[in-house]
Design goal:
The chain has nine helices and twelve strands. By secondary structure, the protein is of the alpha/beta class. Strands 3, 4, 5, 8, 9 and 10 form a six-stranded parallel beta sheet that branches. It has a two-stranded antiparallel ribbon with strand order 1-11. Strands 2-12 form a two-stranded antiparallel ribbon. The chain is elongated and about 120 Å long. It binds zinc ion. Zinc ion binds next to loops.
């Protein structure tokens, strides 16, 4: 082998080595890049999911924010309007000396074990209330819905899914959810339910949704919606004792002719159950009329839409 041939062989070997190094580099680079992409996507997915949960949670806490809504009359104002209930309108609902306070106890987010306990107490005092239920399909929940109706209380819809991101994402999703809940209640109780409470109220801003379409949809269906003007605080981030829940309600009830009181009968609301007897007794002490919501009930709404037609 001449020296020239040796050099050539040497050069070829080195070239092969270089190519091999290059290949290793490219493969390593691609592997790392793919892995990083997967990692990043996973992290982003988790982030989106947790943000979604936070939004739902935040929206839920809005249900318990101090309420300023009040009675709204059903007068037409000409063109379509959406307006938050103003302080001026709130004045119409302010109680005057000698007025009998009408109090509507409303329980959201059930049914659950606590619903049974609440129904027992209401029975004991012969008091009727209103339950805004969510989409629970199991037999026990259906039986509780039936019990609510059979014992003379009013049953209302509080959406099937109770997930803001779902129900407030489009009118189609909203109306499908309403129908689903209406059908479940009818199936369980025989009652075609025509009253509704918006999760987060009709002025819910959390989902960054314009509520107009949803309100108009309910109006078209002849479904009446009710917000509240008295909040017990049983679902706020601040945890109240049973006595404090009673005080929260009593402090506001005395101000109004009509009070729609926000309470919850979902899982974990044992303090509400605990507070109920003394709440009823305190209301009876001031001669308040405790009533279930009916067609005649003054509509306490944060937001209204009316059309001139
Ligand atoms: Zn709710």
């Amino acid at each position: 082998m001449t020296e020239e041939q040796r050099d050539l062989a040497q050069e070829k070997r080195e070239k092969r080595k270089r190519v091999k190094r290059m290949k290793t580099f490219i493969v390593t680079f691609l592997s790392v890049w793919i892995m990083l992409s997967i990692l990043l996507t996973t992290v982003l997915c988790i982030k989106v999911y947790s943000l979604q949960k936070q939004i739902d949670k935040l929206a839920e806490s809005v249900e318990n924010a101090a309420a300023t809504a009040t009675a709204v009359s059903d007068t037409d104002q000409g063109s379509v309007r959406v307006e938050p209930v103003t302080e001026a309108i709130a004045k119409e609902n302010l109680a005057e000396e000698g007025d009998v306070h009408k109090v509507y106890l409303t329980f959201d987010d059930g049914p659950s074990d606590n619903t049974d306990a609440i129904l027992e107490i209401l029975n004991e005092y012969n008091v009727k209330a209103t339950f805004f239920v969510v989409g629970k399909e199991d037999q026990e929940s259906r039986d509780r819905m039936k019990r609510i109706v059979d014992e003379g209380h009013t049953i209302g819809m509080h959406s099937y899914a109770h997930k803001y991101s779902e129900i407030y994402s489009s009118l189609e999703n909203f109306s499908t959810d309403v129908e689903k809940m209406q059908n479940l209640i009818e199936d369980a109780t025989g009652v075609r339910c025509m009253i509704y409470r918006f999760p987060g109220s009709s002025s819910n801003m959390i989902s960054n949704t314009d509520m107009t379409d949803y309100i108009r949809y309910l109006n078209e269906q002849g479904i009446a919606y009710y917000d509240w003007n008295v909040s017990s605080g049983d679902s706020t981030s601040q945890v109240y004792t049973a006595d404090e829940l009673v005080e929260n309600v009593m402090n506001d009830v005395v101000k109004y002719k009509t009070s729609v009181v926000l309470l919850h009968d979902s899982e974990g609301k044992e303090t509400t159950v605990e507070a109920l007897s003394s709440l009823i007794e305190r209301l009876q002490e001031i001669n308040a009329e405790i009533l279930p919501i009916t067609d005649d009930t003054v509509r306490i709404q944060y937001m209204t839409v009316s059309a001139n037609n």
